[in-house]
Amino acid sequence: MFLCPLIVIGALLGIQTGREVEIFNSYELQFSILDDKAIRINADYFVTKQEQFRQVFPIYDFLGWYTVGHKPSMADIDVLQQLMVYNESPLFLQMDANEIPTPSRALPITMYESIVDIVDNQPQPMFIKANYKVETGEAERIAVDHVAHAATHQDGENSLVSHLSGQQNAIKMLHTRIKLLHQYLQDSVEGRVSKDHDLERQISSLCNRLPTISGQAFEEEFMTVVDKFNTIAAQNNHPPHGRLRRSMLA
């Protein structure tokens, strides 16, 4: 019949309000390839999985399916006809794993709407491209940021090194910005740049909000942090380059 280029098929779940569709979740579907190379979705597995998701996410409906490929094929039409039993017009999300992302197309995915058109007096399922946009929640952004940072760490590095590296980068960025403000104020006093009173008021307000780094209370708290840092570094066999000292903040 036809060769099947599909390697994965999954269901898309979400909410539909009129013409606006929001996809929130997905799961992989079980399917089999028959002797004639046709694809058959495991209907029992699909129904069971839908019932399980309905118990956890009662407002999510089956909206469509996803797969991989360069463009829709007869195999996708065959899958569409099977899934139309559960949704009259399911969406079809196709990912091209071989496509190289570009600035104008960050994700190698294409979204299609499914329609039924009359061709030679016969109903024929078809796909038409649909517009979409990707939105991320705060929890997703935090998770992606965590994974991105974890991927940059070399083998053998532990969480302490990761944490200290992040702190070091933050301190470097803070130091660079403080130098920029200091240079502006110096140039302003010496007349090399025109004074911006609104900006100077903002700088003054920022300085007034900074905690004091002098006094007995700060000294005791700082030395406690120093002792903890040196102890943890020694226990993890990652001694700092020289002992952390009070003079580092001077």
Automatic annotation (TrEMBL):
Belongs to the peptidase M67A family. CSN6 subfamily. Gene3D superfamilies: Cytidine Deaminase, domain 2. Component of the COP9 signalosome complex (CSN), a complex involved in various cellular and developmental processes. Residues 8-88 form the JAB1/MPN/MOV34 metalloenzyme domain. It comes from Lunasporangiospora selenospora. Residues 1-18 form the signal peptide. It is found in: Cytoplasm; Nucleus. One of its GO terms (cellular component) is COP9 signalosome. This is COP9 signalosome complex subunit 6. One of its GO terms (biological process) is protein deneddylation. Residues 138-224 form the EIF3F/CSN6-like C-terminal domain. Pfam families: JAB, MitMem_reg. It comes from the Eukaryota. One of its GO terms (molecular function) is metallopeptidase activity. Keywords: Cytoplasm, Nucleus, Signal, Signalosome.
